[in-house]
Amino acid sequence: MSIRVLKDKRVLLGVTGGVAAYKAAILASRLTQVGVAVDVVLTEAATRFVAPLTFQAVTQRPVYTDLFELEVDPGSGELSIPHIALAKAADLLLIAPATGNTLAKLAHGIADNLLTNIALATPAPLLIAPAMESDMWAHPATQTNVATLTERGVTVVGPTAGHLASGAEGVGRMSEPAEILEMARVVLGQAGDLEQRRVVVSAGGTREAIDPVRFISNRSSGKMGYALALAARDRGAQVTLVTAPTSLSDPVGLKTVQVESAAQMRDAILAASSDADALVMAAAVSDYRPIEPAHQKIKKGEEGLTLQLSRTPDILAEMARLRELGRGPKIVVGFAAETQDLLVNARDKLQRKRLDLIAANDVSAADAGFSVDTNRVTLLSADGTVDALPLMSKEEVADEIWDRVCRLWETG
């Protein structure tokens, strides 16, 4: 999976002496797979748990352990000091696992090994993933050290509760590589082109109750909406994700609002969008709801079941009315999920809802419909521009949409 905010970045991964060091090898591998150049620095204690060769194999780059080892620059032939060269080149310093000992050194500016020297020398942001026994984590000294680092702008992820190396259960496990990777995206994206922008994204398919057991819904998986929210977060935006039920995990680094019905989504969207710079409505909102949902489960009878339905709130139409009054988000983007007459229906929706941009896609296509990880959309702008995108991942589609939103902001 190509993640724009990570691709071509240089991450310095510091590994300290804890059992969780084996997870750092998985993290190094995943970072490398998404296009990151990973330089690994191991403390002496870390080499007792995982050998340098492991990291060299997964990153295909040298691994550093010695503060006093000098290197020869292959271009100039000059000697370079590793902790200075590595510190200057890094886009992010990530320490995982970070032991209690290393946290104390970082908090007090102690530089007695290669990693802590780099931490003092680098201008790059610092992300740490602590891992230790519960009592060590809960100790006032450790908590004070973490508070000190946080006040300096250091980002801390974890630790989590679970089974520890001692066999006990408690808080102290290092966060999983997937969560640390997400936080790396958040930290690296803080100065992106959506910095200081407030955006709202909707996702998923709403549900309208028939009775306490059954509901009317649609096939939306929420993947496109979540991709849009993550892409905006990775580019520095303050993101509110309003989502109907999905099987997807809540993303880190943004605000998630869970809703179920179209009415609940309408209320949440209006509340979140009052001071937003942009709203992207990727959710598949139910058009109809049962007029009178049963309070008890409807029992199966011999005859068929007839439901009386009424229209649900039209969120985009209401947003259009608010914008006419000078309220609401500056830019509104809609989606048109169609099975026929794609461009005709999308253009009609664009005009009726007074949208700035609409993404039209044929959801009957096997490779670009619901539940898949790819999409093929055509972007129609209010100025008449039509841009048909090729089949690409939903993450790539999300970035294309935000690129166009940025242009709309620039042009006023």
- Widest sheet, order of strands: 15-14-11-16-19-20-22-23
CATH A-level architecture of the largest domain: 3-Layer(aba) Sandwich
What does the overall shape look like? elongated
**What gap, in angstroms, lies between the N and C termini?**
34 Å
Q: Oligomeric state of the chains? A: single chain
Number of strands: 24
Major sheet: size, sense and barrel closure? 8 strands, mixed
Mean pLDDT reading? 88
What's the CATH first level of the largest domain?
A: Alpha Beta
Q: State the helicity in percent bands.
A: 25-40%
**CATH-defined superfamily of the largest domain:** CoaB-like
Task: Kindly give the count of domains.
Answer: 2
Total helical segments? 13
| Uncertain regions spanning at least 5 consecutive residues | none
Radius of gyration: 25 Å
Secondary structure layout:
Elements: E1 10-15, H1 21-33, E2 37-42, H2 52-59, E3 63-64, E4 71-72, E5 79-80, H3 82-89, E6 92-98, H4 100-108, H5 114-121, E7 126-130, H6 134-138, H7 140-151, E8 155-156, E9 160-163, E10 169-173, H8 177-188, E11 198-203, E12 208-209, E13 215-216, H9 223-234, E14 238-243, E15 255-258, H10 262-273, E16 278-281, E17 288-290, E18 309-311, H11 315-324, E19 331-338, H12 342-352, E20 357-362, E21 374-375, E22 377-381, E23 386-388, E24 392-393, H13 394-411
Parallel strand pairs: 1-2, 1-6, 2-3, 6-7, 7-8, 11-14, 11-16, 14-15, 16-19, 19-20
Antiparallel strand pairs: 4-5, 9-10, 12-13, 17-18, 20-22, 21-24, 22-23
Helix pairs in contact: 1-2, 1-8, 3-5, 4-7, 9-13
Describe this structure in words.
An 8-stranded mixed sheet has the order 15-14-11-16-19-20-22-23, sandwiched between helices. The chain has a 6-stranded parallel sheet with strand order 3-2-1-6-7-8, sandwiched between helices. A two-stranded antiparallel sheet has the order 4-5. Helices cover 33% and strands 24% of the residues. The chain is built from 13 helices and 24 strands. It has 2 domains: 10-188, Rossmann fold (3-Layer(aba) Sandwich); 198-411, CoaB-like (Rossmann fold).
